[in-house]
Write a structure and sequence with these properties.
Number of helices: 1
Radius of gyration: 32 Å
CATH topology: Lipocalin
Number of domains: 1
Distance between the termini: 113 Å
Shape: elongated
Structural class: alpha+beta
CATH class: Mainly Beta
Strand order of the largest sheet: 1-3-4-5-6-7-8-9
Order of helices and strands: HEEEEEEEEE
Strand content: 35-45%
Helix content: 25-40%
CATH architecture: Beta Barrel
Length: about 200
């Protein structure tokens, strides 16, 4: 009888120890789950705040870009340029741009970071006077700014398209004396906020 009681006692002790171990494991597991839920909630809160801040920044940039476009006081800083043959070059926005200041426009294409080019910064810079400028907004909020640019080194029609709720824009330059159309994509910023580098004009 004593042996049986001792055996039962040992079994009960082992069962209690196992239950304590299982409970501790369950508690640790729940703690990890609770911590994960907390981290995810904090991450979502931060992500939502980041999205709100990004949306606010985009909205401010869009408003500034639209005002600059309407006032003919802006720069389209291009980050990629596509040529007639379909080749696209990802470029430095400091040296590839279309700028408009009052009645003067500058179109600069400098796809090379290695060769100086005619303008001294890897490409070509042309400037001229603006005529026939028009600003139109379609039903989706997309703005089209069109103008003719005439000067010693340029005689072209330029169309700039700016997307709603953003300062992203694309532009098409149609030379009047040849078919070497070029497309630029980038962002529009107020003229005084731009830090582009203007090379020597033709």
């Amino acid at each position: 009888m004593t042996v049986i009681v001792a055996g039962l006692s040992a079994i009960a002790h082992d069962a209690h120890a196992q239950n304590s171990y299982d409970n501790a494991r369950a508690t640790r597991r729940q703690d990890r789950i609770d911590a994960w839920h907390k981290d995810m909630a904090e991450f979502r809160a931060r992500s939502a705040e980041d999205r709100r801040m990004n949306e606010l920044a985009d909205s401010i940039a869009s408003i500034q870009a639209r005002a600059a476009l309407a006032n003919q006081d802006f720069v389209l800083e291009a980050d990629n340029v596509t040529f007639k043959n379909g080749m696209t070059a990802y470029v430095n926005s400091n040296t590839n741009f279309i700028s408009v200041k009052g009645n003067r426009a500058v179109v600069q294409i400098s796809p090379s970071n290695f060769a100086s080019g005619p303008n001294g910064v890897g490409g070509v810079t042309v400037d001229g006077m603006i005529t026939g400028q028009k600003v139109m907004t379609d039903s989706k909020g997309r703005i089209t700014f069109s103008m003719n640019v005439m000067g010693i080194g340029i005689n072209a029609q330029v169309e700039i398209y700016m997307y709603p709720n953003s300062n992203r824009a694309s532009a098409t330059v149609y030379p009047n004396f040849n078919s070497n159309t070029v497309w630029l994509d980038g962002t529009i910023v107020p003229y005084e906020s731009s830090d582009v580098i203007e090379g020597s004009s033709l």
